[in-house]
Amino acid sequence: MSTIIYPSPIFGPIHSRRLGISLGINLQPADGKVCTFDCIYCECGFNKDHRPTLPRPSRELVAEKLEEQLQKMVAEQQLPDVLTFAGNGEPTSHPHFAEIIDDTIRLRDQYCPNAKVCVLSNATMIHRPQVHDALLRVDDNILKLDTIDPAYINRVDCPIGHYDANSIIDGLKAFNGHVIIQTMFMRGTYQGESVDNTAEAYIAPWLETVKAIKPQQVMVYTIDRETPAQGLEKASREQLDAIRDRVIAAGIPCTASY
User: What is the pTM of this model?
Assistant: First the structure.
């Protein structure tokens, strides 16, 4: 099992399957993982295997290091397509997430005005008004919804603490369309139980929920790197394409990444 622990607070640029040339912003410690999920497919591994000893980067350090990297990229004439909040865990759990978003937008406007500001989040913090309002200010507010089935969420996403799918869905609707839904589809088993969410029993209610949320876009994807749990399998290209086409047929733009 190999896992990826990203530098902090800035990493990359890297080429993203979905986003292009992405400069990463990691608001978690550089030596470990802090997340409100413990997904069995997470490329950063299980939470228990990467307990950090360093603190989260401060707001001031994030701005300083981001500006340094953007100045370097401008000098090299290699501007990013997107500034992406991702890394070793849930970015919106940082206590100064909203202020860091404001700093990032300011630096983006100064150095690379054509780049988008993107947040990849599991949506567990969207009930916080400051987080909600900050996500309204970014270009791509990409929030996870792997299924609406509570048993599947507990088995695969493994929330830390209470997770209520209906509350999350209400929170997603509250963005009034300024949200991109991201869903992982996969097959296989974990601890003797199926983790296949490509069956109609999962897809149909998920699709109806997506229609109710009315996002600006949907991203469906599958496993791309080694996972901490054994027995997981990629969804097939045909399965992802079929799901994508159903979303598009519902009038919502959708991409599939294999």
Answer: 0.96
